[in-house]
Amino acid sequence: MIGIMMTIIVILVIIPVLNAQKSEDKTIKLKIVPVRHYIFSKTDRDAHFWSAIYIASNNKVYVGTSTHASAASVYEFDIATSTMRHLANLTVLLDELGKGIWTNGKIHVKMQELDGYVYFSSFCEDNGPPAIDAGSYNGAYWFRINMETGKVEALARVSSLWGTTGQAMDKNRRIIYGLDEIGHLRRYFIDENYTEDLGRVDDWDVCRTIFTDEAGNVYGSYPPGLIWKYDPKKEGIFNLEFLRLPITIDSRSMANPMLDRRAQWRIIEWDPVDKVAYGIIGGSNLLFKFDVNKGPEGEIIPLAQMCAPAYRGGNPFDVPHATLAMTINQKDRKIYYIPVTRGDFDYDLVSTEIGITGKKAVPSQANRPSSYSFLVTYDLKTGVREDVGILVPTDGSYARGMEGAATDKDGKVWFVGSFEQSDEALKINGGFRSALGLGCYDPFSK
Q: N or C: which end of the chain has fewer CB within 10 A?
């Protein structure tokens, strides 16, 4: 099986190189990286996932899944026993199921832990019937998972609108911040159980991750390559006027506007060791360091391009959109990032080839070669980038695209995304041919 996979993968990774007209000396052979694969459900097809994976202090993995049609679900995976447990369906929890209304069908945020609970918030984006009175939507909510019992509890409402795409926590002030789809920054007071709207920070295409530093300041980005900051001491939101992200795509034509999520950070994470944030640019997949304490506004330092090898140094429009699958491994002080080998975000449902060359017809989704998940690391001690290889589950399935990652206390890297099950994998796992799954890579195994 692995021999067959290697043949397929080598053919696929050559394709973008051919597009870049470098085929004569740039044939790239990538290593196979065996990983574990766990399914969420044999009966419920969890279709989408963004960001919502968290490994708590009880050595359990908490995952929030999404569906564009209906419901978001919460799962708990016990690392010690390799046991998956379904904790909640948000539409059932909120009494939305079967009422013909818009529903809480997405969990799109990074989760945080405090006092024995894991906190997250919800989101609605075309979840439920397509033609409906928008006033029927009850709104998005904050939730918490009791780590001892697994009970999921709905808390205060975020808003009556779409809901949150980014979330961060200030543990000292006991506040959770959420960036919603309409560009407003909201904060939730945990002890008082109420939400406050802090105002608009963006009005184009909001970033998908925000973070807090050790002082409790909150940061987010917006196109083209700009950054905002909320200062809790000054109680104000400020644009960092003299700081820019190292973006490669900046629109200069209304005929081809690029003020979108490619021109901002896609994923960012605060590192308590270096006391800086590390992030990935949406368009170029460029890893950068954001030192918030350097100078009056901070300093941005480009580090390395983390996309699959075939795209590096080529046409920036050819680079697949950055994924949300990045994690800082504190055991070996490396950043682990999982881009895709082709296509674009949303698990290869979007083609970057459309409208770029304009010279030949673009193959249909059914006929195009598939995307694979590729693992890249960056050593924070030495500054060395390493191409680890293509992720291949040991059960014979295919890892198509990941949109979230986290590291456990032993240094194992966990990730969630789209897996396509082969005939061999279906015999083991049952369930659906293509659905979300949980994966694990152990960089320290022999």
A: C
